[in-house]
Amino acid sequence: MSAKTLFDKVWDSHVVHQIDKGPDVLFIDRHMVHEVTSPVAFLGLKNRAIEVLYPERTFATADHNTPTLNQHLPVTDPLSAKQLKALEENAKAHNISYWGLGHEKNGIVHVVGPEYGITLPGATIVCGDSHTSTHGAFGAIAFGIGTSEVEMVLASQCIMQPKPKKMRITIDGTLQNGVTPKDVALFIISQLTTSGATGYFVEYAGEVFENMSMEGRMTVCNLSIEMGARGGMIAPDATTFEYIQGREFTPKGDAWDRAMEYWSTLSTDAGAHFDKEFFFDGTQIEPMITFGTNPGMGIGIQKNIPQPTASQGKATYEKSLNYMGFSEGDALIGKKIDYVFLGSCTNGRIEDFRAFTSIVKGKKKAPNVTAWLVPGSHQVRKAIADEGLLTVLEEAGFELREPGCSACLAMNDDKIPAGKYAISTSNRNFEGRQGPGARTLLASPIMAAAAAITGKVTDPRTLN
Question: What is the 8-class DSSP label of residue 107?
Answer without folding.
Answer: B
